[in-house]
Design goal:
By secondary structure, this protein is an alpha/beta fold. The chain has helices at residues 5-40, 46-57, 89-97, 124-135, 154-163, 184-194, 222-231, 245-254, 266-281; strands at 69-71, 81-84, 102-105, 139-142, 176-183, 201-203, 209-216, 234-237, 260-263, 290-292. 42% of the residues lie in helices and 15% in strands. The strands form two sheets. A five-stranded mixed sheet has the order 1-4-3-2-10, sandwiched between helices. Strands 5-7-8-9-6 form a five-stranded mixed sheet.
Length: 302
């Protein structure tokens, strides 16, 4: 049966109208999604990034924590992140060169544990550093208390990765290892290849054979060293007052005990943890460049 000519024309117009309507709806949806996408792509502020990091540690709030912004505006949009041990002048300059404006440092920025600056209000070194931070709109945040509360402790884990010793973990704690039998001298030479140019302080018999090694980051105090030495042949540590663990181990060696301690220095002992920190951050912070920059030891040994 042949349809009237006017029906065919009407049907064609209906199809064209539907096509136009569908196209318009699709265009509206696309434009809306672009607008929404643009809104979600808005850079995170330093405060938001820090809040995200603290949440990711899984830690309960730390009372009276030192993990606060030490300089800069919390509402600064973050362009890039640098993790480091110390936010030194050189690190700050490097961050600017890398277009990174959030510096995450493990240790103080202004030369004391709580970064109290009253004593430096007229000091030219402090004032120049503070001016550089302000002029370049940087934000410096300390990540100390919370990073040690990640499980396992991220600073200890970073050292285990750096040493390549995860496979030697004793199964009790990330900072304790059972390595193939070696001598203290050979262990020192191995450490020298991992940390070239770093001077170590060592107390112990170089020919002593060992298998059990513990790691003690930073400066937790000699009591921690004493406890570790009860169950281990060697402790690789950061630093301590010279009249404490040094003298304890010297007497132990004199008594014929198989004990030794190796001090890497505070920076060297914890910097691998901040190197690992950069990789850890990349696991949940997206669309922000994250880089580790080594601050290196604070001094030279001649």
């Amino acid at each position: 049966m042949k349809l009237p000519e006017y029906y065919s024309v009407l049907h064609l117009k209906t199809i064209n109208m539907r096509t136009v309507v569908s196209f318009c709806i699709g265009l509206v949806v696309f434009c809306t999604s672009v607008c929404i996408s643009g809104q979600t792509a808005k850079p995170m502020t330093a405060a938001a990034v820090i809040e995200s990091i603290i949440k990711q540690t899984g830690s309960e709030p730390v009372p009276n924590t030192v993990d606060v912004i030490k300089a800069g505006d919390p509402q600064t949009p973050v362009k890039g992140i640098v993790t480091t041990m110390f936010a030194t002048m050189d690190i700050l300059k490097k961050a600017v060169e890398m277009n990174c404006n959030l510096i995450i440092a493990h240790e103080p920025v202004f030369y004391n544990h709580r970064d109290e600056t009253a004593q430096f209000k007229n000091d030219p070194v402090f004032l120049e550093k503070k001016k550089f931070i302000d002029d370049n709109k940087l934000v410096v945040w300390r990540f100390h208390d919370y990073i040690h509360r990640i499980r396992p402790d991220a600073i200890d884990y970073g050292m285990a990765v750096k040493l390549g010793w995860l496979k030697y973990n004793d199964g009790k704690a990330v900072e304790r290892f059972v390595v193939p039998e070696t001598t203290l001298k050979e262990l020192i030479m191995t450490l020298k290849t991992i940390f070239p140019g770093v001077a170590f302080d060592v107390t112990g018999n170089p020919e002593m054979k060992l298998t059990k090694v513990a790691f003690s980051a930073g400066a937790p105090g000699s009591t921690v060293h004493y406890r570790m030495l009860e169950e281990n042949d060697v402790v690789i540590a950061g630093e301590v007052s010279q009249w404490e663990t040094y003298e304890y181990v010297r007497d132990a060696v004199s008594q014929g005990r198989k004990k030794a301690i190796i001090f890497l220095g505070h920076v060297t002992s914890e910097e691998p943890g901040m190197e690992y920190c950069a990789e850890w951050l990349k696991g949940f912070i997206n669309n922000i460049p994250i880089n580790f920059v080594a601050s290196g030891p604070s001094y030279r040994t001649y």
